[in-house]
Amino acid sequence: MRKVLNKGFVKLVDKMGDDSSIVQAARVSYSKGTKTKREDDKLIHYLLKNHHWTPFEMVVFKFHVKLPIFIARQWMRHRAGTFNEISARYSEMEECFYIPELERIQSQSITNKQGSDGELELSKRKVAYCSFIEVSEFAFKEYQKLLDLGVSRELSRMSLPVNIFTEFYWKVDLRNLFNFLTLRNDSHAQFEIREYSKAILDIISEIVPVAYEAYNKNK
């Protein structure tokens, strides 16, 4: 398990295949048998460099992810893979919020309308930090109040902000995972989702080290 942000994580729950699975899938296309490891490694690099993606779909991962809702919504815009998320209609949410560190609190980017960039005075960052905490605590108290009044969970959840943590399981093959990582580990992506991307890269580097090396070399 890799810890991410203040209270989040990425955990590998299950996997199918490794570097050898990519090689096997590729060689069956050419009716060629097993080669040396060096030749197999070269083949993986060749496949990725030349965008022969199908063999990479033979490797599948299942992750358990805990993350803020606003990052989960960005994540789920990637239609590849299968998601199963905790439902606030069936379960009560726990008081667990993402509060950015002082260093993370920045001003609105001038060049990127959807991003943050540049320094913000320390005094303003401290005010913002306290505000994030106060708003989160207030919202959760109101959520609990609604539940105590007997209001249904599906309506009570409306009071919760998007920095509350949710959890989901995500099953994805290596080809689509590489596509996800290319977009979400990019410098233009939001800091928080880049942190999750880095955690995933760290995990898969141990399972598909050759494919990981080829990806880093050719991305």
How is this structure best described in words?
By secondary structure, the chain is of the alpha+beta class. It has two domains: 1-98 and 165-219, Gyrase A, domain 2, CATH 3.30.1360; 101-162. It contains eight helices and five strands; from the N terminus they run E-E-H-H-E-H-E-H-H-E-H-H-H. Strand 1 (2-4) and strand 2 (8-16) form a beta hairpin. The protein starts with a strand and ends with a helix. The relative contact order is 0.21. The mean pLDDT is 92.
Give a nutshell description of this structure:
With 219 residues, the protein is of the alpha+beta class.
Which terms would index this structure?
219 residues; alpha+beta; Gyrase A, domain 2; 2 domains; five-stranded antiparallel beta sheet; 5 strands; 45% helix
Give me the number of helical elements.
8
Mean pLDDT over the full residue set? 92
Based on secondary structure, the structural category is alpha+beta
The CATH level-2 architecture of the largest domain is identified as: 2-Layer Sandwich
Oligomer: single chain
How much beta, percentage-wise? 15-25%
Give the terminus-to-terminus CA distance: 25 Å
CATH fold descriptor of the largest domain: Gyrase A, domain 2
Principal-axis shape equals globular
How many discrete domains?
2
**Which spans of ≥5 residues are poorly predicted at pLDDT below 50?**
none
Q: How would you characterize the largest beta sheet? A: 5 strands, antiparallel
Order of helices and strands: EEHHEHEHHEHHH
**CATH class value of the largest domain:** Alpha Beta
Percent of residues in helical segments? 40-55%
